[in-house]
Amino acid sequence: EKTMNTHLHILEAYTNLYHVWPNSILKKQQEALINLFLNKFINDDSHLNLFFTNTWENKSSVISYGHDIECAWLLTEAAEAIKNKDLISKTRDVAISISEKFISEAIDIDGGIINERNSKSGIVDVEKHWWQHAEALVGLMNAYTISNDDKFIEPIFDVWEFIKKKLIDHIDGEW
User: Would you say the pTM of this structure is higher than 0.70?
Assistant: First the structure.
């Protein structure tokens, strides 16, 4: 009944709307949405809970690595847009934590991004979709910008090498 991905794209839309229409009601809604991510969607393992009942009971054990890293940078951007210092601090901490977990679990030996893992069954979906790689570049660069920690640099280049080798169509110019 409730999905993280729907809320993530509402967060993204609100952020962009706020850039062109800094309305006080919109700001309050954005603050509420950011807090929803901090309190419901992001779990103690620095992953996102994806699906919920209407009463916020978590219904999923799937970890979507692309959504994790996408959320890390979108959440930071959302807090920065509304200039809420407390939320900026919290979202930056969360972005670093998610990015660290992402590096340790989501980047395959070839630099590609693993699609999903079921935390209950342990089954890993090793398919590699284009969009996750784009989100990884932005999310890891965001983590580096926030922290100035070099541990985020090498993974950026590993993902970029995978993109160049496996995703870019060098003849027709599309991913």
Answer: yes
